[in-house]
Design goal:
It is built from 5 helices and 17 strands. By secondary structure, it is α/β, with parallel strands linked by helices.
Length: 333
């Protein structure tokens, strides 16, 4: 069922047909979701997907969603959620998803209010813990201006989590725990503000795949402003030796300020260029050393020509005689 006629309340949702499997309620203006938006007596056991994107939702009450035990996909993209305190009002409802006991996908792309503060990570952790999302395997948190997770264990209470999407935020480093996400399969960090990975970061990524764990790990780090320094060489070497799969690794770039200008280099081209410069330098050095060696030999031969001639004269005389005798013998025959 698709409802997108500019509604300003959710009253019509209380009359959903019980055979509804997919609800698309988008493009409306619903600043607040009240309690029991699907009514109190409904049997919506067939409902599998709820899409409430782009509704301007600012607050979801702790008891807004009832009768959603079989919903597997919840989409709240492009809203304006505030889950932390604002003035005298508390928008933090840690059990907001507690009735989604079979939820496997949670989409929160650009779902939170602009300039959301660092408490977002703590609030998310509280929500994940109190909502008991034990079957959740995919979470989307792209485009939420996330800078850092003050609570590094934000994802640790999601035991089935496989895919974490954090692209297009402002994350400067791997500042949350990944080793506790035991089934992690895909980590999206593209288009953030990561300038380097520490050796500890790289070691932790290695721990998440073969041979430490019996499953693969794919990461995406494209579009980050890595610095063109020693750390980028470490990253490049790691990218070509690790068992972690780096998606689009040929597109990874590093950034450098030089002569008052900002330069962006493709990592593979940068390394190839450095190798080429080293190779050319070695070639030039070999040529120069060869010329120097030949010059030294020529100089020595010139200086010691009398000595060399005196030593070579007996040998040349013996060779000359041998040739002469051989010629006489040939004529006699």
């Amino acid at each position: 069922m698709h409802l997108w006629k500019g509604f300003t309340n959710t009253e019509m949702l209380a009359d959903l047909p019980e055979e509804t499997q997919v609800l698309i309620f988008t493009g409306n203006h619903i600043p607040e979701l009240p309690w029991n938006i699907f009514g109190e007596l409904k049997d919506l056991s067939m409902l599998k997907t709820i899409d409430m994107s782009n509704n301007g939702i600012m607050e979801i009450k702790g008891k807004s969603y009832h009768h959603v035990t079989n919903v597997e996909r919840l989409i709240l993209n492009h809203n304006n959620l505030s889950i932390s305190s604002r003035g005298d009002e508390n928008y933090h409802h840690p059990r907001v998803f507690s009735n989604f006991v079979n939820l496997i996908e949670l989409h929160l792309t650009n779902a939170f209010a602009d300039n959301t503060d660092e408490a977002l990570a703590i609030d998310l952790h509280d929500i994940f813990v109190n909502s008991n999302l034990t079957k959740l395997f995919k979470i989307h948190l792209e485009q939420n201006e996330i800078k850092r997770f003050r609570d590094q264990y934000v994802f640790c209470d999601l035991p089935s989590l496989l895919d974490v999407y954090l692209g297009n935020n402002d994350i400067p480093s791997l500042n949350f725990n990944i080793t506790c996400i035991n089934k992690l399969r895909f980590l999206d960090l593209e288009n953030n503000n990561i300038t380097y990975f520490t050796q500890t970061d790289l070691d932790n990524l290695d721990r998440m795949t073969y041979p430490r764990r019996n499953h693969s790990l794919v990461i995406d780090v494209g579009g980050n402003p890595f610095r063109c320094d020693d750390a980028i060489k470490t990253l490049f070497d790691w990218m070509h030796t690790t068992n972690v799969t780096i998606r689009n690794k040929e597109l990874v770039q590093c950034h450098q300020e030089k002569y008052g200008n900002h330069f962006i280099y493709n990592l593979q081209n940068l390394v190839d260029s450095k190798h080429a410069r080293v190779s050319r330098a070695v070639s030039v050095l070999v040529i120069v050393l060869t010329i120097v060696l030949l010059s030294l030999l020529a100089a020595y031969a010139y200086i010691a020509k009398d000595k060399i001639q005196s030593k070579l004269s007996p040998l040349l005389e013996i060779v000359s005689r041998k040739v002469h005798y051989t010629t006489i013998e040939s004529q006699d025959v």
